[in-house]
Input
Amino acid sequence: MNDKVFAKPIKKQFEFDEEVAAVFDDMLERSVPFYKESQKITEFFALKNLNENGRVYDLGCSTASTLLNIHRKLSTNAELIGLDNSEAMLQRARQKCEAYGADIEVCNADILEYDYKEADVFISNYTLQFIRPLVREELVKKIAAALQKEGAFIFSEKVISHHPKLNKELIECYYDFKKEQGYSEYEIMQKREALENVLVPYSEEENIKMALNAGFSHCEVLLRWANFATFIALK
Output
């Protein structure tokens, strides 16, 4: 189903409700530059760091697309767990997992409060940016504590530049991309207003510093296009 969520006047802040869940896969592919490439690189490094009988958590798993792609390529026994606090998203995730016969556990959970078991890999695609900055690093510390030694945390985020001119141009570049995907100027502005104070991005440097402060030994960018980046942090 095509994303037309912001083609009409919006009277509330952005939320992952049924209307968004119904078009979310299309929204991601048309709103996130090189989304498929980011997914592929996430899957590659997740599988590289996953041991026999290991465990993967996907935080903010939405419709479980990432875990389903990992499941298709599994060559070992592993436990795949997706967490999200949107029941609308999880309903679609369950339907997709059932349709593909995939043994994936998806749970309605608060990722800040969840009691994580030891894991090989954590994934977080465009989720940290929705966590309040005051508690964001605490979540990353919790992730680091739950990872096995040499475990990996792969996360994608919208990023900003602290250089005002460059940041403005990054946003302009991104809006040109969205127009090429068929979004109107009106839809772009509507979504920007709906996300105001809901999505709070960090810079590339701030994300790396946060990971290192949380206990990871190394963090770097795997893929970046303008103001979108995929990172890997190693314990």
In short: The chain is about 45% helix and 25% strand. The longest strand covers residues 147-160. Residues 129 and 201 are 5 Å apart (CA to CA). The first helix runs from residue 18 to 31.
